[in-house]
Batch of 4 targets.
Target 1
Amino acid sequence: MAPTHLLVLDADTGRRDGLVQLLKNAGHRPTLATTPAEASRALAVPGLDLLLVALATPGLDHMGLREAIAPVEPVEPEPLDQIERRHIARTLDYTRGNKRRAAHLLGIARSTLLAKVRRYNLEASDAD
C-alpha cells in the first residue's frame, strides 16, 4: 500500500509530534503545520491525500479552511496527460525508480511505461 501524504495542523507540539511519529512509523508521509498560515501554504501545493486539523487551533479561520478544501467556484480540470505524468512520476518515486515494479503497480506493461517515461521526460532514474 502506498504511503498517504497528510497535512497535520496542530498548535499543541506534544500532541502533534506524537501523531507525526505514529504516522511515520505506519509508513505515511506527514507534512507539519503549526499555524493556519503554514497550513494554507501547504494546501496550495497539490499532492495531499488527507488533512488532519485540530479545530481548536488559535487563529484558525474555519470558513477559509472550508474554502481551501472545497472551493465554492469549480476548479478548472487538469489535462489528463498532466495527471498521468504526475501519477507516473509519483509511482516511480515510490518504487525508487524500479520501472518493473512501477509498471506492475500501474497495471501496464513495462514497455508501455518506458514509452510514457520517454514521452513525459521522466528519465531521471535509471534503476530497473
Target 2
Amino acid sequence: MGNKTNGLLALLGIGALAYWKYKKSTPEEQQAVKDKINNAKDNLNKWGNDLKTKANDVASQAQNKFDEAKTKVEDTASNI
C-alpha cells in the first residue's frame, strides 16, 4: 500500500509543479504547450481510428472466410 501512496503523491507533486510552471510561463510558451497537447491528442485519435479500421478489416476477412467454409460444407452436404 505504501508504494501506491508514494506513487500517487509523486504524481500529484509532478502535476502541481507542471501546473505552477505553466501558470508562470509566457503566453507564447502556454500556447506552445497547448499546441503540443492538441497535436498529441490528434495523433492518438488518428492511431485509434487506424487501429479500429484494421480491426474491422480483419473481422470482415474472418467473416468472409467463415461464409466460404460454410458454403463449402453446405454444398458438400447437399451432394451426399
Target 3
Amino acid sequence: MVVALTSTKSQGHRPAKTSRIELRATEDDRDLLDRAAMALGTDRSSFLLAQGRLAAQRVLADREQFVLDADGQKEWKRINSRPARNLPGLARLLQRPSPFVTPVGDQPEA
C-alpha cells in the first residue's frame, strides 16, 4: 500500500514550458549529457528535464509518500477509521484571532 501525502496530477497533460533553467557545465559534462540524450533519441533539454524530474521525485519520495506492509496497512486503517475526538482546547484556539494578522483598524495609514 502506498499512501500519498500530496496531490497527484495527471501526467497526460503538461503545461506550456514558460520558465527557463540555465546551468553551467564543463564541456566534458555537456558532451556526456548530449551522448546520453542521443542514446535515448531525445535532445539535451528534454533529457535533463526528464532525468531531473526523476531525481527530484526520488529525493522527495520519502517526504511525500510511504509504503506500508500488511500489518502497517491494518494499523493505518484502524487509526483512520476511529471517530474524530472532541478537543475543546483546540476549538477555543481556532476561534481566537490570529496573532499574525494586524486588525484593519490598527494598520498604519499609507
Target 4
Amino acid sequence: MLTQAPKGTQDMLPGSAHRWQRIEENMRSVCRLAGYREIRTPVFEHTELFQRGVGDGTDVVQKEMYTFLDKGGRSVTLKPEGTAGVVRAFVEAHLYADPLPCKLFYASCPNFRYEKPQAGRLRQFHQNGVEIFGAKDASADAEVIQVALDVLKASGITGLKLSINSIGCPECRSAYQAALKAYLQEKLPALCRTCNERFERNPMRILDCKEDAGKLTDAPSMLDFLCEECSEHFEALKKYLSALGISYGIDPRIVRGLDYYTKTVFEIIAETPDGALTVCGGGRYDALVEELGGPSLPGVGFGMGVERMLLVEDQQGVASEAEPLYDAFVVTMGAAARIEGAKLVRELRENGLRADLDHAARSMKSQFKYADKIAAKRVVVVAEEELSRNAVKLRDMENGLEAEVARENIVNILLEMKGE
C-alpha cells in the first residue's frame, strides 16, 4: 500500500524527533570529550566487503543481508552493520597514515537486516558506534566500554549490566573449537536446525542460541583455552575496568555474531519492567583492517541500537520531553499589523528565539486558540491600535496576564524570560 511503510521499518515522526536528537547529541558530546571524530559511510557497499569482513558463514551474510545487482551488474548490499564500512573508509582514505590511534564515531547510522521484526529490532535500524584503530592495549577496550556506558547514562537509562568475555585469537581458538565440537557432537540430534547448520561453519555461535542454551550449561569455556597473550589482555581489561569503577560480570557464552571479533567481546544489558534488553555490544577485531586490504592494525569498538535505547527509555519511564515549539507566538490583527508581525518574527529568530505567526489567515480569536493548542507559553499581540503608540501586548498564556510593552523592548523582554 502506498500509505503504509514497508514491513520492518518505521517513521521518525515530529513528535518523537526530539528523542532521537537528544540521543545523537549525547553521543556526540561524550565522544567529543574523548577525542573521537565523526565519520559517515555510504548506506550500501560492495557485497564482498561484508562477505570478507563480517564473515561468509555468519547468519548475517547467509540469511539477513539486503543484496542486489545494480544497473551495472555489480552486487551491492545495504550495510547490515557499521564496522566493516568504517574499516573500508579507513583503509581507502589512508587514515592509518595519520597519528594513531585513530578514534572515530557515528551517530544514528542506518543499517539493514532481513529478519523477523520485533520490539526494538527492525529491518531498518540505527546504531551509534565507535571504532579505535591502532590501539592494542586493553585500555582501549575499557575506554569504548566507558564511552558506551556514558552515552546510555546520559539518556537517563539505568539498571545497566556489563558482561565481558574473551574469544581469544585464531591460534588459541582453533584448539577450543575442536574441544567444543567434540562436546557438541553427541548433542546435535537434540539441538535445533540452526545449531546443526552452525556446527561446521561457526560452532561457537551455538552457545548463543536462545532455544538451546539451557542444554549446553556444561560446555567447555573459551577462557580455559586462551593463549598467554590473550589471557594477559583479558586480565588487563579487568584491571582497567576495576580502576574505572565499572562493575562487570564474566559471561563465557558471549561470542557475538560476527566473525571479525578477537579477544575482548562484551554486551551491555538494561533491566526493564518488561525484561532485560541488550542495548550495546562490541569488542576487539585485531585482524579486520588487514583482512580488508590495510596494514596490520588492531581495532576495537561497539554498536549501540538507537531503537533499543528508545524502547528502554519507554519501559523505564525516562523518555525525554519535547521543548515548547515556540518561545513566542505572534498574533496579529489588521493588514498593517501582519506586516509588522512578520518583521517581528524575523527579529526574534535572529536573536535566537523560536517564533512564528499565523499563516492560515485565521481570525484573532482563532489565532489564540491555535496558540493554546501548540502550548505556546507567551503570545505577542501586534495590533494597529498599539502600533500607533509603538507598542505591542505580551500575554502569558499560563496565567492570562497581559501587559503593554514598548515595541523596541519586546525582544529583550522575551530573551530575559527565556533565561529565567
